[in-house]
Structures are given as structure tokens and as C-alpha cells.
Amino acid sequence: MKHPFRGTGVALVTPFTADNTIDYKALGQIIDNQVKGGIDYLVALGTTAESSTLTTAEKADVVRFVKVRKGNLPLVVGMGGNCTRTILEQIESFNFEGVDGILVVTPYYNKPSQEGMFRHYSAIARESPVPVILYNVPTRTGVNLEAETVIRLAESNEKIVAVKEASGILSQITRINKYTPSHFSVISGDDVLAFPIVSIGGVGVISVTANALPGKVSRMIQLALEGKYDEARELHFELIELFRLLFKEGNPGGVKALLTIQGIIQNELRTPLFRISESTYREIEEAYRKLI
After folding, report:
1. 20 to 30 A Cα–Cα from 140, which one of 107, 155, 169, 190?
2. What is the DSSP string of 59-123?
3. Reported confidence tier of residue 190, pLDDT bands at 50, 70, 90
């Protein structure tokens, strides 16, 4: 199955107002900036969106809003969880019009085996009417989707088209790139590793930083995909300190601080998350000022 998830995707934040409601004006501005900045596709309701703190009604409203605002950009919607049956029920009731794929995180907390994850993803792929992107982020979920399982999944169903890899294990990522079938792609789930992953065969990144700097991130990835590694490396080096700082106290606290510095959103998160410290905020502001 062909998919449009090449280049730079952005894991959209969910801006909040001071009274903790969703700030759709700010979200609209962020989406408009992605379109102008050359982003290739949007990802709604991922980790960066603070999805675990959104109600079912809010999630539906966010997706509806993004569909209207996104223009011609492809849209991926996060639809993960640690109960296979619940995800299948969500798929059955979900309106997939205007949605080009789903991003499905590995089950968290209950720590399934590799066979359990194979069966979990296989069931989802059978029911999904759109392409499925696996999402491996063991630092958050407590379980690693190993290369052999990814390869097995890619071979078992062509609707499983990619993995968003955020394990940071380059040997594992290399094996996935080498042994998966031609319809399958590796997408970096880490901004800091996006350039290295593209250099070993990855097709791009689902980026956090791009919420605030879509032009620079998308340019770096495009250059790398074109094999212009020297130029891409220059941008990677230019951004590396900001990449580090944005994740210093967790995501999306860092990128929300940067968007606040840019005057786009209010620096609000929903508990249990909270805004970053003043010292890190100042470091991010200083690093950003050096870029502009």
C-alpha cells in the first residue's frame, strides 16, 4: 500500500488557554505555519498533543478542526492504547474521511510480549481502512517493539506501512531498514536522530520542533533525502542545541515554551504535565534568538 508519509510530519501540540480549554485560534495559526513552512503532513492526537489529557469529545473536535484547516496536507491521527478491543471499537466508530493514516503506539503499562504486540497490531491493521504507522517509544511505554517483530508485521500486511522509531537504538533501526519489504518505511521519532536515520534509509521524521520551526526542519530533511548530506548536516548542527533543550524537561513542555516565546500560544499544559522551569525557558529563548 502506498503512503504519503515521506519528508517531515509535525506532531501537533494542543494549545490551551489560561482556563485550560483548547485554544483553536492558536492551533489554527500553528497549522497555517506548517503549510507555509513546507511541512509534508500533519499528525494529530500524538504524544505531543497531550492526548491522554483530552476528553473523547475534545479529540473529535481537534480532528475535525485539523481536517478543515490542513489544506491539501495529508493527516495522520494517533489512535493507540493498551487494549486491543478498545482500539478496534474506536476504528469502527471513527470518521476516516480526510484521514490518510493512523499512528498506533505500542501498548503501555501492561508490557506485552513480542507475540502479543504482533497480534495487537495485526488485529488493528485488519480493521483499519487506512495505512497504519507503528510507533515504538520504549522510554514512555516500557516495552520495545523489536526489529524482528516489525519485520514480521511489515511482511504480514501491506497496510502496515511504516514505523515511527523513537527507541534511539540505531542498530535496531538499521535492521528494520535493511530487512523490511519495499512498501515499508522507517520514520524518525526523534528530532535529534532524524538526520542520522535518513542517512541510513529512513524517509523522514515526525517532528516536535517543527511546530515552531517548520521551515528549518523540513529543509534539513529534504536536503538529506536528496543526498545533500553536507548541507543537511549544517542545519542539523545549527538546530542540535535547540533539539536538546526542547526535551530537557520533557515534551511538550519545551516546544510549548518556544511557541510562547514566538507569541503563538500561551504557556499552558494540562496536569500532570506542567510548564518548564524558568532557567530552561531562558536557555531555549537564548538558543532560539541565535537562529533568527
Report:
1. 155
2. HHHHHHHHHHHSTT--EEEE---S-HHHHHHHHHH---TT--EEEEEPP-SS---HHHHHHHHHH
3. very high
Q: What is the pLDDT of residue 1?
A: 64
8 A C-beta contact, residue 162 and residue 187: yes
Active-site annotation holds for 135: yes
Q: Is residue 164 annotated as a catalytic residue, yes or no?
A: yes
In the numeric block, the cell 504535565 is attached to 273
Q: Which of these is catalytic: 59, 159, 164, 256? A: 164
Other C-beta atoms within 10 Å of 12: how many?
A: 26
- Measured in degrees and rounded to the nearest 5, phi and psi for residue 275 equal -60, 155
DSSP letter at 16? B
Residues facing residue 162 across a β-bridge = 133, 185
**CATH code of domain 7-228:** 3.20.20.70
Q: pTM for the complete prediction?
A: 0.96
Q: Give residue 292's pLDDT band: very low, low, confident or very high (50, 70, 90).
A: confident
Could you say which of 135, 216, 281, 288 is catalytic?
135
Of the candidates 15, 17, 71, 8, the one whose C-alpha atom is nearest the C-alpha of residue 43 is 8
Contacts 24+ apart (CB under 8 A), 184-187: 184/154, 184/160, 185/3, 185/5, 185/6, 185/161, 186/162, 187/5, 187/9, 187/133, 187/162, 187/163
